[in-house]
Fold each of these.
Amino acid sequence: MLDVGKWPIFSLCSEAELQLVRQACVFGSASNELLYTTIFVLGTNCCGCLGLGDVQSTIEPRRLDSLSGKKIACLSYGSGPHIVLATTEGEVFTWGHNAYSQLGNGTTNAGLVPYHISTNLSNKQVIEVACGSYHSLVLTSDGEVFAWGYNNSGQVGSGSTANQPIPRRVTGCLQSKVVVNIACGQMCSMAVVNTGEVFVWGYNGNGQLGLGSSGNQPTPCRVAALQGIRVQRVACGYAHTLVLTDEGQVYAWGANSYGQLGTGNKSNQSYPTPVVVEKDRIIEIAACHSAHTSAAKTQGGHVYMWGQCRGQSVTLPHLTHFSSTDDVFACFATPAVTWRLLSVEPDDHLTVAESLKREFDNPNTADLKFLVDGKYIYVHKVLLKIRCEHFRSSLEDNEDDIVEMSEFSYPVYRAFLEYLYTDSISLSPEEAVGLLDLATFYRENRLKKLCQQTIKQGICEENAIALLSAAVKYEAQDLEEFCFRFCINHLTVVTQTSGFAEMDHDLLKNFISKASRVGAFKN
Ligand SMILES: *[C@@H]1O[C@H](CO)[C@@H](O)[C@H](O)[C@H]1NC(C)=O
Ligand SMILES: *[C@@H]1O[C@H](CO)[C@@H](O)[C@H](O)[C@H]1NC(C)=O
Ligand SMILES: *[C@@H]1O[C@H](CO)[C@@H](O)[C@H](O)[C@H]1NC(C)=O
Ligand SMILES: *[C@@H]1O[C@H](CO)[C@@H](O)[C@H](O)[C@H]1NC(C)=O
Ligand SMILES: CC(=O)N[C@H]1CO[C@H](CO)[C@@H](O)[C@@H]1O
């Protein structure tokens, strides 16, 4: 399962829906998107950026049928917003904002549904996509870069400032190079080639091209200051740039108003400047064209962030408690976005918790069975000993592989054993009373709490007295108080139930005196 809990938009989805999420992307100030094997989208539908054929926003996931059956390899988004997506087959689809032709279909009409780009890309397999605010860049499997969209600063690399309505290959000094990685800042573009050189073009007002100047570049230029340094990856923030070298070092340049260069001050830098993170090698850099935030992950798994952090400026790399750079953009960037398409690992690996859950009541691996009400429940001695004090002693010298139980009913005992494997219970409030009894007996305090929770959530006029009696019997004071309050608030109906008529004498006396003390019988 993909852990998307840190992005607020996903609180609109049910647990069951979240279980299905395999890939996700969150973008825009309020608009958002999530993607499953079947694609679902939700959020603000500005410019049709949800691709549904209308501009209706939604707080419930809606199915994006027009891409059904397609597997997504990568995806990027602009500020309009517009979306550029490549499938695992290398096809490119675009939709959303199109005022600058950033959808690459020759028009400037907003794209309400995904448009399959074929012009100039029909025989190409696209393996990477990147969006600036209003332009688009793709990388093909043979190392060619194509660009289209907004051109005001030369960001499509065409040598002119005319908007580029369809994909055009970026040539000039990239003509004979093999590009291996691309990125876009707000209005600039970058490409890393297989020799480790970095080529840049577009807007340069804050020095984000790293050329030592602030003049825009209409065609690709090599970052000469990186002479002798082999770059592997490039990442662009709104107006700053990060690169990662083949030796695990990071260089940054461009705008620095929020400390996003990690240099310890806020001076913009138009030349590559080393970022000192820690002795450990950096293996991943992260930035997003909608944010002034930077992040990096070390080989040891430490995640650092610097730059804009929830409105504050962090001018030096700061060690976070995260294990992924994605979390930096979920928690610190404003708004919370994803800097890349999130994907679950494509293997069927189970976590420890998932594996244990699967083994509960599995006769093939069990070494102990309980016989309750004539039915077997299969368990593992070692797990029971690890999870429950009672079993630690009772199973100590136990050589048997069968234990008969008569103190508790089958559903109650089964729920107890299952709890030891899963940490959770699913029972009716009446059954939870039985489990509460068991939990008290075995001194399982956490289980006791879970039972009380289930009971509170299942209380009604019909069962209120029974639940109250149970609370008294098992000395669950908090629960007793809760049931008592419920009875008082529903006194007329509760006193007419069969539960009330059959109430134990002492309990009734107690109930009446307590009820009169709180003034339940006035007028
Ligand atoms: C381009 O996309 C727009 C918006 O979806 C659409 O109206 C138009 O027909 C498309 N143009 C082409 C040439 O497909
Ligand atoms: C792309 O398409 C246009 C128009 O059809 C054409 O002029 C151009 O040469 C094509 N090729 C590239 C690589 O841009
Ligand atoms: C640095 O860049 C920012 C834009 O992000 C700009 O507002 C600021 O004026 C620049 N600072 C200097 C000293 O040029
Ligand atoms: C800011 O830091 C950079 C990199 O360490 C340094 O070159 C520059 O002189 C500093 N600027 C100021 C104003 O301290
Ligand atoms: C900002 C800018 O220079 N826009 C130009 C982009 O190209 C179109 C022509 O396609 C011009 O009309 C715009 O002025």
Amino acid sequence: MFIADNTFATPHNQKPLNLGADLVIHSLTKYIDGHGDAVAGAVMGSENLIRKIEKEAVLSGECIIAPFNCFLIERGIKTLPMRMRTHNYNGFCLANFLERHPKVSKVFYPGLPSHPQYKLACKQMLTPLGFPGFGGMLSFELKDEQKLEGFIDYLISHSFVELAVSLGCAGTLVQIPYLMTHGKISEEEKLKKGITKGLIRVSVGIEHYKDIENAFREALDKAA
Ligand SMILES: *Cc1c(COP(=O)(O)O)cnc(C)c1O
């Protein structure tokens, strides 16, 4: 069975069922809701498979979304395409800006030719009009990992950027995988996954692009 988690890409940028997936899962909490104010999930696939999951989910009593969350998600999803266009634009621009910055050693973003799966991303991350859309998720490493704390402190206290592990909402969020999302796994596992001490993950928001770039440039220049 081939199951794809399409949370980062969203259905606007990538359609795994058309690419051969049996099931697709989404955290609706992220881009689909889009405002960081509701928690929910969804599973998509053939009726056969969904019926099987449905039975187990109903029995476990864990598949009921609260009515108010349904309301918020239904409201959020109406702006998904226009939000994704901006996430795609801002993510692409910030990835390129960071890759050229002298204080950054590495940027991970599927829309950069330096990404090992760039060609694959160009083929399968396609927006409705057929243009590639690489989304708003990226991570990067500082050349000097000793400067990480100062950089994050400066970034979040001198700009609109927030430190948080969630993603996919209107505002730009940063988090430190080594200490936060992957803080609990062993050193060895972290190394295997490429989670270094200087790694910073960004959920690039839909603010004006120049504001985002300025926030990162200033923090890099002054604190990194
Ligand atoms: C957040 C996230 C999940 C979990 O979703 P929740 O709505 O927080 O339970 C699963 N997969 C990915 C890729 C996520 O980003």
Amino acid sequence: MDLSKRKFKEDFKKMLTEVYSMDISESESTEQFFTLGNLLRSYSSKNWSRTNQQYIEKQKKQAYYFSMEFLLGRMLKSNLLNLGILDTVRNGLQDFGIDLEQLITIEPDPGLGNGGLGRLAACFIDSMATSEIPAHGNGIRFKYGLFKQKFVNGYQVELPENWLQNGNVWETRKMHAAVTVRFYGKVWLEQNAAGVLEPHYSDTQDVLAVPYDSAVIGYDNSTVNTLRLWSAEIPPKDDITDYWSYIHQRNQIESISEVLYPDDSNYEGRLLRLKQEYFFVSAGIQSILRHYKKMHLHMNHLAEKVAIHINDTHPALCVPELMRLLLDEEHMDWDHAWNVTVNVMSYTNHTIMSEALEKWPIDMIRSLLPRIDQIICEIDRRFTMKMSTLFESALVERTRIVEGGNVKMAHLAIIGSHSVNGVAQLHTTILKEKVLHDFFLIYPSKFNNKTNGIAQRRWLMLANEPLRDLIQRKIGNEWETTPTELNMLKAFRDDKDTLHELAQIKQLNKERFAEYIKQTMNLEINTDAIFDVQIKRLHAYKRQLLNLLHILSLYFKIKDDPQADIQPRVFIFGAKAAPSYTYAKQIIKLINSVADLINQDRELENKLKIVFVENYGVSLAEKIIPAADVSEQISLASKEASGTSNMKLMLNGAITLATLDGANVEIRDRVGDQNIMIFGLRENEVYQYYRDGSYHSRNYYERNPVLHRILDALIDGTIPGAEAEGHSIFDSLVQYGDEYFVLRDFDSYAAVQERIDHLYRDTLKWQRMALINIAGAGIFSSDYTVQQYASQIWDVSSKVHPL
Ligand SMILES: *Cc1c(COP(=O)(O)O)cnc(C)c1O
């Protein structure tokens, strides 16, 4: 938008007076932040209503991205950037003596997601608005986001994250758009006068779903889409007979949108979770149909105007819920309703980990959602009947929805969708050949790949302004909207000046991060060291342990020979563990104990440090990633569906140290073997081990003296404070089979780490690799990802043509 500094300053002063009756000298950061937030809302409001109007007037097909999680991060700077007024506002505020960088810290970081899946949803809505795709987010307005993590004696402690405490400046409560969601009760079918079966309900518990909308502002365009998050409330009543039972009931209802489940890649079959899933699904679909009806089209044409995307199985109840509304409210017959439903729905699979595959006891669904239960059983009945005529009965049994007393949510999503996609090429191949092979036989054409992506705006333009400036000086700014233009940087791969500038920027970012660590953790780190970064949820399959075992090997190397020629390293970890995931919490404690041991050792000063930041989340990621030299992407091959921190780090010039897993494979294809550090088992080798059962981790302990010593350190008192954890982790690796092949991959990992140690000494060579990574990161922009969803899955329009 056009905005002069003078106009901004006027607007800012006026808004501060209007909202707070203050002038600038009296105001504090909080008032200034809310004033600026309100001002941005007013700047984008016209485009927001105009975008909506246009969607209606042109009867545009719209897509709705249903996701349990949207891990947005702070929005102030992102909104300023997308409106094109970041510098104007920064300068204007400066005139008032207000520092924008300080102001942004007032905004809480809304942690409405666990990790990659939620962050993907956030990058997607930004990219959809930027690509002018008529698509919106639909989710839950959790009162408490993901817990706040603290370390006490090295142990993770969880505290509530009350992000709404001071209000959320970006949202608008839309009372007129509230809908009712029904739980429990009895349902039966009765013929009406016209002879049609109609459902009747009694004794239901009704919940009022109230939407809170936030503007999703496109970058450098006039599109403003909507993120709609639902809040659960007790419906208004005018006859409260028992006050205390009313309060009790209110609390019970409000608990539905109270907290995000803190599990990542793990399934917990809890009733409240099922309520949450149905709550936002039902509210979202009811609101979509209400909107559709304004166009006065027959429900048979719904799929021409509406696409609904199911992000992982959490919103899989979209399938029976749309069926319910079409059958019961719109009086369609089953076959037409089913046809419409399948054409509307599409589904993304995010994991092959069996512990993450949702299955709900059918009894639980029957009691909580009696009508949905009937519909699911009917879908299942028709599916098995039809498929029994086409396929062997064993295959039908394996693919049916209701089996062994459980409803398999992935099966429901696949059967009820016209498209099923994986999130990286390798992942999609594994789905087709292994995990979902049965379904691939039934529905080969449903399967497709959409490799994940990241928004280059947040992860480069905002997080790393010095790098953005350098890129702009070298190749202009077309890459901002056509990210593959970053390729042009390759022309500078042998330009010493550019490579030196890159090195300087990395150094600057490392110093900034070091200063932050000094302030927040009172820890000094050597900025000449390699900053070796592993930031992601703590999960056994991601193998933070492999990283830690290698750190211990360096520790012993230096202790044995203080003169050992080792490049100094700072190992940076950021990771939350699910509160109920005992093993992951033990690993956190062990890392913290090793950190204490190493960081306090004078002999290791400036050679080895471990920084385990507390409360890893989007805001911390934005600080760490620009400072990273090495990106640890070391999951056991086949286990990480895609990964996205790998893309963010690459875009910021870190060198990827990786197994051939998830999108690492595509990163390797992009930059070439010389510019990435690959190690470890391949996916087919892992499956071979599974087939022949020939992995015996104890042999590695017994036959590899380096490993032997490191593993003994876990149990012989070398690491003070983590005796119990050390024993338990030792046992998992040596006694209980080492499920994720940590010991098997150790030598290969250590060898490639040693190569990094040598490569890093040659700054130009290192920066040349960094530059090739930055230049190659363009295709991993989520702009391209959503453009492919738009054209290949949703069939909705978009501005830019896909790759
Ligand atoms: C990108 C991101 C993730 C995903 O990281 P992976 O390493 O791909 O699992 C998780 N959390 C946050 C805060 C992120 O920004």
Amino acid sequence: MSALVEAVVDLDALGHNIDALRARVAPAELMVVVKADAYGHGRLPVALQAARRGIRWIGALDLDTALTLRAGGVGPDTGVLAWLYPPGEDFERAITARVDLGVSSVSEMDAIARAAAEARDRPGFVAPRLHLKLDTGLHRNGATADDWPALVAAAVAAERRGLVRTHAVWTHIAEASEEEDTLSLERFLAGVAAARALGATVAVRHLAASSAGFRREDVRLDLVRMGGHCWGIPSFDGVTPAQMGLVPVMTLRAQVLGVRRDRDRALAFVSAGYGDGVPRSVAGKASVALGGTQHPIVAVERDHLVVDVTGREPEVGEAAVLFGTGAEGEQTVREWGDLSGTLGDEITTRIASRVPRRYIGGS
Ligand SMILES: *Cc1c(COP(=O)(O)O)cnc(C)c1O
């Protein structure tokens, strides 16, 4: 390894997780959610690998991400869903690129219909597919129950003009308590029935993400949207990826820069710091693997870690594994998260973009 620090992203591990999760949620389908640059794993390589493994739905969050995926080779057989827009969003480019559009309000619906009316006379125009979003209690986005009939009616009216296609109804749930999720499911199914009664096509119903989608059959419906579990990061306390049949996808590697004696201790300097996105909160909590054994992290500086190597002093240039699958004795990012009071997802997402991602596998 020449880079001081690198994030190795194992596309075969990703493929394995995708296969395992698909089998778990079947007959529902799996949407791979690649927002936040696939939580630091790299949105395009992840989406292309998902498509190679037969995934037919990618969740992008924003239009820039959706268009990056289309431009990068995610073809029209794979639905790419965007749902969060800045005011004044340009929907014409989304329609041209055949992005599926989440719609949370009548004003968004109007903007999409206007863009479709502009695009309609161009050769190759395909009316965009809509995923109408209902708020079932999370209050993040989506139409409230009061606003729902007006949103559905606006979509159906635009469909009658040939501007859009109603296709899916969806919501996002808290996944914090079983009771709340059950209540959200009931509200959601009522919203689906109301949408159908108003003339909307509801070919796909989706509500659950990693946590509820893994545990609860009743919330899977037609499609489950997963981020965290695809990267092999369990969303459950005290559960290892292996117990869920998953493999962590990212391994963060660095190297030993030097060793210094400090009274009766030996301290190694390892070439990754908070400037690379290593959280300072892992100091005194998590460890790094050197030569197959774990050594406690004493401090996280901007450009390096200080690791206690008393009893077994490593060579300069020796590989250090910060987190990964455990194959070289290292902790997983889920363990790092548990030990330092954050989420494994948050740690991978915050690994700095300047840290090179090295992709391995990927058939
Ligand atoms: C982020 C997100 C997901 C995926 O969440 P995980 O818990 O990482 O699986 C699913 N749906 C929506 C709407 C999201 O924003």
